[in-house]
Specification:
Layout lengths: L1 H26 L5 H27 L9 H17 L3 H25 L5 H21 L4
Length: about 140
């Protein structure tokens, strides 16, 4: 149980780091004030979630997990290429929506894979999934 708990929390940690990095990498390129306000709220919510995950990992005497360098690098390249061709709020919203959907997919897979994780870790993963789903919905008007 503890092994699944730690693995699930570490995957949540890697995912939240990817999310914060994605939000921060496009933030200065956003022109629509309402979208910028949504991103402010999401950055704050993601950072709060990041702290919650770190606190749980520390409880188990564990450190977090960095995102896969290949995944992070490919995401960065995709973002830079797309924004190089079209640096509109619509493109930013589309990129962030894709990231949210990938996060939901990955976290759901890990939730199933680490089914022996304790309730606290599962709740963190579900809360993070909900955060990503909410963000994707908030981005729809900007697509």
């Amino acid at each position: 149980m503890q092994e699944d708990t730690i693995k699930l929390l570490r995957e949540c940690d890697a995912g939240i780091k990817m999310g914060v990095d994605a939000l921060e990498s496009v933030y200065d390129k956003v022109t629509h004030e309402d979208l910028k306000s949504h991103l402010d709220d999401q950055i704050k919510a993601h950072n709060e979630m990041k702290k919650e995950i770190r606190d749980q990992l520390e409880h188990y005497g564990e450190e977090g997990k960095e995102p896969n360098p290949m995944t992070k690098g490919m995401s960065h390249v995709k973002t830079q290429v797309k924004l190089g061709f079209d640096c509109s709020d619509e493109t930013i919203a589309a990129l962030l929506t894709d990231g949210c959907n990938m996060g939901v997919k990955s976290l759901s897979r890990y939730l199933n894979k680490y089914s022996e994780a304790d309730a606290g870790a599962k709740n963190v993963a579900k809360k993070l999934i909900s955060l990503e789903e909410t963000m994707a919905k908030e981005l729809r008007p900007y697509l």
